[in-house]
Amino acid sequence: MSIAVAALLNFLTGCASTTGPEANAGLTVERILTEPLTGIAGMSRVKRDLSDIYGFDPSVDQYTNRDSKPLAGGWVLSQLWIEPSPADFISVSLATQPCFPVQRALSLTQAMPYQGSGEVSAPMHNAIKNGMLVGLTSSPDGKCLRTIHIERDK
Questions:
Q1: Residue 27 CB contacts under 8 Å (≥ 6 apart), including other chains
Q2: How far apart are CA 56 and CA 111, in angstroms?
Q3: Is 74 within 8 Å of 98 (Cβ atoms)?
Q4: What is the rounded distance in angstroms from the CA atom of residue 68 to the CA atom of residue 139?
Q5: Is the pTM of the predicted complex or chain greater than 0.85?
Q6: How many Cα atoms occupy the beta-carbon half-sphere of 41 within 13 Å?
Q7: Which of 74, 137, 139, 153 pairs with 6 at a CA distance of 20 to 30 A?
Q8: Distance, CA of 68 to CA of 137 (rounded, Å)
Q9: Measured on CA atoms in the order 145, 52, 73, 35, is the torsion positive or negative?
Q10: Residue 142 contacts residue 123 (beta carbons within 8 Å)
Q11: What is the DSSP letter of 149?
Q12: Could you write out the DSSP letters of every residue in 79-122?
């Protein structure tokens, strides 16, 4: 193999596997989806990792930020919203591109279709486990994950 071909392959492989120097090496969409379902400690770990990415003190109870932030795996958060008690939730929005497949999120969480009252503009699903609720909202076509909402199951 020539040096030029080896250099090109190295360059292309590097581009395909990296999300940039600002990407959080440990937090993934998969962890945001599943870790809270282990209990309140899992929700706290996700909040701590989000605080590392967004640069806020993890002890704060309320925080909102609409800056795009890359995650490990190439996914991008487009918004973070944390509310204190009595609401006590974490909500993140994902960028439209790349599209995190809703079917993957459903498979990871075992979330079921939302059965609440009222109209919804996009398909919604909830996973409930260990006293925690992880709510998922998809794009209107139901293909891409748009929001992840984490709170205690009330």
A1: 46, 49, 50, 52, 53, 71, 72
A2: 30
A3: yes
A4: 18
A5: no
A6: 1
A7: 74
A8: 18
A9: negative
A10: yes
A11: E
A12: EEEEE-TTT-EEEEEE-SSSPPBHHHHHHHH--EE---SS--SS
Burial 103-141 (b: 16+ CB within 10 A, else e): eebbebbebeeeeeeeeeeebbbbbebeebbbbbbbeee
Structure tokens, 126: 């909830």
**118-150 pLDDT per residue, tens:** 666 677 999 999 999 999 999 988 899 999 999
Tokens representing 105? 């999120």
Counting every residue written for the chain, the total comes to 154
Burial of 58 (0-12, 13-18, 19+ CB in 10 A): middle
